[in-house]
Every structure is written in C-alpha cells, then in structure tokens.
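FORM 12-B: Structure-to-Sequence Request
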C-alpha cells in the first residue's frame, strides 16, 4: 500500500497560496497538514477539496474541550474525509476516549493522535501551569495515557521518539516535526533532526514545512528527502 511518510505543513494564510504549492505536489509522494491558520482562513471546504484530490490530510486543530464537544468536533472533522486528526492528551482519558469513539463511528475512520506537551513549552512554562513533573516524564505519562485511551499515536519531537518507540511498541504512531534536511535553514526550530535520523529514531511520519514550502523547486526537495529516507522506511 502506498503510505507516504512525509507530511508537508501547509502553513499559509490563504487557499490561493496553499494551492500554488499543492499543484506542484503528488499525493502518492506526500501528505498535507492543515493547521489552525489555514483552516480558519480557508475553511472546511478547502480541506475537503484537498482530500477529494487524493491527498492524505492531517487536520492539525489540536482539539481540547469537554468530551462531548471534542467528540462532535471529531465527527465533523472525520466527515471532511481527512486521513488524520488530533486532540490534546492533557484533555484527559475521558475526552480522548470520546474522540476515539466519534472517529471510529465515522465512515472514513481517520487516525487519531494526541499532542502530549507542546514543544514550545519548557520545564519553567510547565511549572507555571501547575505541572511539576519532569518534562520528559510528563511527555511519557501523557503518551501512555493516549495509548491506554485507544488512540493511534502522538505528535512528538524526533528526539523523544526513541524512548516513546521503546515504551509504546512498534505499532504506535509517532508523528514528528522539527525536521531539517542536511544543509537546510534551521528557521526558528532549535532541536532539529534530519529526515533519515528521525526515521531511524522511530518516527512513523515526518512533518516538514519551510524546507519544502519555501524552496524554489519544492517537488525536487521532496524527491531528495524521499531518496534520503528510502533505506529507513520499513
Ligand atoms: O516549517 P517547519 O518545518 O518548521 O514546520 C513545522 C510544522 O510543524 C509547523 O506547522 C509547526 O507548527 C508544526 N510543529 C512544530 N513543532 C511542534 C509541533 C508542531 O514545528 N512541536
């Protein structure tokens, strides 16, 4: 089965700019991530249009609310035909289970993953919101809670992937941003890993934005990344 490992982050302000990139990409070679900015600007119809043109779409809206509301949002998202969607693990077990039930009751049954701790947070910002557990331990606890709730995986840094892969087994889906091909601009990412390193560390799918979206020839960069990764894809 064709299962592209690269998820291109469509971090654009409007559908026109996003479409300019999408028209240069092949759904057999990559998937697409739509986050809060593009979703808020371009709406669900845009997501449906991407899904209809055969792209696997990761709808990255990180739902976090009461279980009933999250479940209904997950039903609506599933009905757009997306391949993957996500919630915040810190919404708790009941919320994640409600989300999972909603996704499983849909006809498209997308993968459901959870965000553990946002990588923009550090020990200090975690303490500020009343969590005094060590950050790495907190990530692992939330990932275990996600697995127990029956979800398919988590978003995590590739640097966390090795531990999570060991602790949570080979079937758990690890989706990792913060990826930079050798020689690429780091942008604002600080802890970066190359695509092949991320796969070797146990990542299932790689979220890559600017190295592809800002390139003069995005399809060529994607091609090079896929070639680099070939040996690591099981
Ligand atoms: O352009 P770049 O490759 O840095 O984009 C990475 C994408 O992954 C962006 O959409 C960003 O919001 C997302 N992301 C991230 N780090 C996280 C979680 C998500 O960079 N920890």
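FORM 12-B RESPONSE
SEQUENCE OUT:
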């Amino acid at each position: 089965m064709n299962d592209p490992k690269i998820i291109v982050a469509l971090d654009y302000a409007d559908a026109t700019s996003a479409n300019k990139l999408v028209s240069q990409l092949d759904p057999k070679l990559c998937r697409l991530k739509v986050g809060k900015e593009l979703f808020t600007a371009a709406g669900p119809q845009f997501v449906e249009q991407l899904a209809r043109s055969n792209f696997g779409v990761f709808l990255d809206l990180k739902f976090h609310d009461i279980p009933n509301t999250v479940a209904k949002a997950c039903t609506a998202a599933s009905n757009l035909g997306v391949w993957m969607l996500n919630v915040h693990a810190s919404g708790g077990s009941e919320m994640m289970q409600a989300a999972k039930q909603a996704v499983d009751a849909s006809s498209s049954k997308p993968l459901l993953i959870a965000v553990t701790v946002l990588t923009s947070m550090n020990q200090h910002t975690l303490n500020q919101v009343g969590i005094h557990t060590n950050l790495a331990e907190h990530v692992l606890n939330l990932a275990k809670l996600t697995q127990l709730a029956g979800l398919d995986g988590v978003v995590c840094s590739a640097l966390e992937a090795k531990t999570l892969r060991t602790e949570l087994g080979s079937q758990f889906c690890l989706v990792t941003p913060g990826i930079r091909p050798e020689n690429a601009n780091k942008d604002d990412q600080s802890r970066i890993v190359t695509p092949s390193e991320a796969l070797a560390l146990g990542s299932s799918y790689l979220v890559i934005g600017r190295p592809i979206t800002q390139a003069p020839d995005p399809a060529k960069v994607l091609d090079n990344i896929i070639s680099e990764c070939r040996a690591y894809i099981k």
